[in-house]
Amino acid sequence: MTARHTARRLATLGLAAALVASLVACGSDGDDVAESGDPATTAPVDAQTVTVFAASSLTDAFTEIGEGFEAANPGTTVELSFGASSDLVDSITSGEALGTADVFASADESNMDKLVEAGDEGAEPQVFARNQAEIAVPAGNPAGITGIEDFAEADLFLGVCAPEVPCGAYARAVFDNAGVTPSIDSEEAKVTDVVAKVASGELDGGIVYVTDVTADDDDVDGVEIPEEFNVDATYPIATVAEAPSADGATAFVDYVLSDAGQAVLADHGFLPPS
Questions:
Q1: What's the predicted TM-score (pTM) here?
Q2: What domains, with CATH codes, occur in the chain?
């Protein structure tokens, strides 16, 4: 069975209830990576549905990982729900998703910290991947954007994620590092919305992740951000307290941290945990 994902374009207010209602049950590199073993030699879990809440920037990678996990665990289904990390964790810590979500994978440490501070993590979070920021421009770069300093230009249409979203916080850190006061025309609820507006030509440029440019390279081009201005985006993962499929949740986290899971993440442009 193929792992599914639910793309959401929901406003922040009311997201928790809408998110939970829309979920449908169906059928070591570095010190931060657990030595979980090769999934080919790990005993499969009993048939169950594992519900994973994951950051939007993980859509392609986790869809493939979910398919691999299902193949390694016949009869088990991975139900993937993607959105802004801030919205996903709010739905868990508010209590709306407790008893529904099994795993939370965040695009930053601060939103995972919210899960821990609320006591809603099932096990200690582990960093499983890293990412960096990049400027996305429409294919062919019609506006001729060459660097982060162009985000101070008022005559360009530019976008970033909202400040409470990891990609928005990272973008603002890049601007601070570069000493740029940006002229922003659009703030989006999640990084995939920024990518979509850039790809359509609605925006001349936007700050996204390197992996987003890699995933949509037919429609967008990337303009690198110099290392001295860039950020190191860390992605932690944890099981959720009161997970209805606790064994499956633990097995899924182990799979993400395994050689097989790490290979998929690398194929999608993610950096190793350390």
A1: 0.82
A2: 4-129+235-267 (3.40.190.10), 133-223 (3.40.190.10)
